[in-house]
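Record Nucleic acid binding OB-fold tRNA/helicase-type, 360 aa.
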Amino acid sequence: MSSGIGKNLDEILKSEKIEQTQSTQNRQDAQKLQSTQDNITQSSNATNNEEEQDMIKSNGIDKNNMDKDEDNTNNLTFNTNLDVSECDTIKLGDILEKMIEINTIVRVERIFDESEVRGTKVINVVVNDGTRKGLLSLWGNQRSLLKDVVVGDSILIKDAEAPKLYNNRIHLKITNSGNLIKVKSNLPSLNELLANGGSSSSSSRKSIADLQEGDNTELRGLIVALHTKEPYFPLCDDCKKKMVLKKGYAVCKCGKKIDEEAEDLKWVFLVNVTLDDGTGTIRLTLNDENDFLDFKNLKKMVIDDENIMELLNKKLMGLDIVVSGYAKHNDYFDETIFQSKFWHPSNPVEEIKRYLTMEK
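=>
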């Protein structure tokens, strides 16, 4: 990989050859990036349709260091005469957490309204290149980079860093020396990207034995174990934490209290299972992005204090499923796990067609 398309910050910080003039800034960067460790795995699939909340939730480096960022962005100047040919670029799907010096060409899928976080104004942008979606935060004066940009435009994001991968969306932040500029590209149109689900690699399939960290792919196998004791629970809309049911109410540690049957109370399904495809096993998380399970019935069972694990074991144990998602390292288990986006029971007819197609 070229030095211009993403270096692992951990490796750089271990090097004894960092120039003295950069040491202070690098220490600050390391402290910022360390604060973005994955502390929201229990609710990662609960916010698929809340991109801006995802950004604020996982981009803690900006919230905790807002005063410093505001001082920096007030002094930014941007070069609009950028030579795109000189930039080595990387696909969103190939970016890993904590990479820096990232150049990537993407299409703008959505531009959020300007918001304010702890006194600093920010605009969040959903970007897409067909391999993955990304969330770009533009803080302070960086917002001016969007002056002539509209949804559907192709843009080059230059010299960015990726503090966080969350819900299979890579979060990007342009550095003080970075830039954003409209460019011509060979990317499919936005309508084509959206029609393909925004991920051209999601239709590929790999065996567990061949799976590598960062792969955005599809697996097929049998569920051989369930590990979650409380897989269906209400989620606090304010702090995105798991709520507890008490005497007809869902109660959160942050103090929020809401009727357990309220229509606006969000319920989350997250069950950790082990998948076996004959080449190996892997732990993965199943979400509610399917119609295989009756979630209304599961909700009623939880409210009535019934044990839903007996039902889930009957429905899921030994089930042959196809699951699309991405492989990531889990610090708690110190192993690679698979974070699912969509899953469904395998269709024998479709699997036969797939096999015959591969044989040709």
